[in-house]
Amino acid sequence: MSLKRPDFRSLLPVSVRDGEGLHQALTHRSAGGRHNERLEFLGDAVLGLVIADALFEQLPDAPEGDLTRLRAALVNRESLAALARESGLEGTLNLGEGERKSGGQRRDSILADAVEALIGVTYREAGMQAARDFTLALYAERLASLPSAESLKDPKTRLQEQLQGNNAELPVYEVLEVAGPDHQRQFTVSVHLPTQGWGQHGRGSSRRRAEQAAAEAALRRLQQTREQ
Amino acid sequence: MSLKRPDFRSLLPVSVRDGEGLHQALTHRSAGGRHNERLEFLGDAVLGLVIADALFEQLPDAPEGDLTRLRAALVNRESLAALARESGLEGTLNLGEGERKSGGQRRDSILADAVEALIGVTYREAGMQAARDFTLALYAERLASLPSAESLKDPKTRLQEQLQGNNAELPVYEVLEVAGPDHQRQFTVSVHLPTQGWGQHGRGSSRRRAEQAAAEAALRRLQQTREQ
Q1: Beta partners for A189?
Q2: Which residue of A has its CA nearest to B117?
Q3: Is B116 a catalytic residue?
Q4: Where exactly does CATH 3.30.160.20 map onto chain B?
Q5: How far from B116 is each of A55, B36, B168, CA to CA, in Å?
């Protein structure tokens, strides 16, 4: 998503928009003086609750695991940075000179922290309801078009659930090879599907990653088999 | 801490104490039917905000890192389970037969989840302020006697900060040995303090753990040196 959303300032309560806290919320620690780290700590917790609550109400039948996965997909550095860009935060941040010259205005972590700090300062200065309104305005489109909880599951989980759903035997993973030096390991893993009678391979920088890659390959092959 | 606190029921708003949600909040999924997992998801987020907010207000000069460490010390499975025991939650939970027979009433994870579900049901049925009051009542003594943020830092961080404070050179870590089979690795790490001219060793099941053990040993030796 890269839609242009209303400028973040227009979504803030007037008292916050014209208050002193706004400047602090937009100030990275590299600028010195009063910066936004404490507000970010607070805003992160407000954001977590607002999104948890919205998902809880919006999906009354979703099990806890789905709610947890959806929240993780909505609240993370990348999605917060995307929200920041869409709502005009880039270029409004106060950064130290070094940070500015090295492109800090565009850095995901700095943008994400500033969004959380804006939520934090709104909570402090205008209360929970105002912070909720601001957060839900930022997230309106994302909450209106949630990804399927299924698509957020990792490949191993999806593979296991698909096989269980078809009363097939569970997949068997095996490490075939560990290569490379300590800091650059390369794992090769096979996954065998006993009922289907075939297997796939996967590679990755950890055993877990290699298993996920193998499961992903097995899911693709199952899909192709069904389509034939 | 193992103080006996007021029974959790007496801390709940009357509407929740006499409502239907309370039963659900105390019901583990093993009991079947409506259980507390969704309420736990919600309560976890409420708890996170209430504690973040309390620390933010109580420690106006604490940097973000201290707030984060303190929150992690207050909100984790062990401390929630301790709160559950102190406030009489053990023995009140609805569990499936297998879970009950295997001691589920005393299991940390089950107790911790039930506390979060109680916070969640209070939030849902009585609102944010009521959930905040309930949570702060549970946490009253812990918030009144916070550990020092310094003591919550990991040994590597404390060692580095102590050396920096004395204008000493930074410690140098080195892996000396990796032994044992894949699933039971044993790392041996040395830490060398250039300015002091000595080093210490540490062992652990990961490189990180071994480094922390080595740093802990170096901190002890620095302490002894100062006391001589």
Answers
A1: A175, A202
A2: A64
A3: yes
A4: 153-227
A5: 17, 9, 45
The CATH superfamily assigned to B8-148 is Ribonuclease III domain (1.10.1520.10)
Measured CA angle at A13 (ends A7, A19), to 5 deg: 95
Q: Which residues of A touch B41 (CB under 8 A)?
A: 52, 56, 64, 67-68
CA distances from A225 to A87, A196, A222 (A): 44, 10, 5
Substitution target in A55, A56, A119 with the highest count of B β-carbons within 10 Å is A56
Residues of CATH 1.10.1520.10 domain(s) within chain B?
8-148
Between A and B, how many residue pairs show a Cβ–Cβ distance under 8 A?
55
Q: Considering only alpha carbons, which residue of chain B is nearest residue A71?
A: B41
Q: What is the fold, at CATH topology level, of the domain defined by A8-146? A: Ribonuclease iii, N-terminal Endonuclease Domain; Chain A (1.10.1520)
Looking at chain A, which residue has its C-alpha nearest residue B44? A49
Report which residue type is found at A2. S
Residue with tokens 């305005």: A137
Averaged pLDDT of chain B: 93
Stretch(es) of chain A classified as CATH 1.10.1520.10: 8-146
Judge whether residue B3 has pLDDT over 80: no
Match domain B153-227 to its CATH number in 1.10.3210.10, 3.40.50.170, 3.40.1190.20, 3.30.160.20: 3.30.160.20
In angstroms, rounded to a whole number, what is the distance separating the alpha carbons of residues B142 and B166? 33
Which of B116, B125, B211, B216 is catalytic? The answer is B116
B1 band by pLDDT with thresholds 50, 70 and 90: very low
Distance from CA of A9 to the nearest CA of B (A): 24
**B44 contacts on A by Cβ (under 8 Å):** 52
Q: Do A63 and B37 touch (CB under 8 A)?
A: yes
Chain B residues near residue A63 by CB distance under 8 angstroms: 37-38
Q: Using the predicted structure, report yes or no on whether residue A32 has a pLDDT greater than 90.
A: no
CA distance B60 to chain A (A): 9
Q: Could you give the percent of chain B with pLDDT greater than 90?
A: 83
- pLDDT digits 0-9 by tens, A106-157: 999 999 999 999 999 999 999 999 999 999 999 999 999 998 888 888 999 9
CB proximity list for A33: less than 8 A, separation 6 or greater? A27
Provide the residue type at A97 as one letter: E
Q: What is the pTM of this model?
A: 0.81
**pLDDT tens-digit series, residues B115-149:** 999 999 999 999 999 999 999 999 999 999 998 88
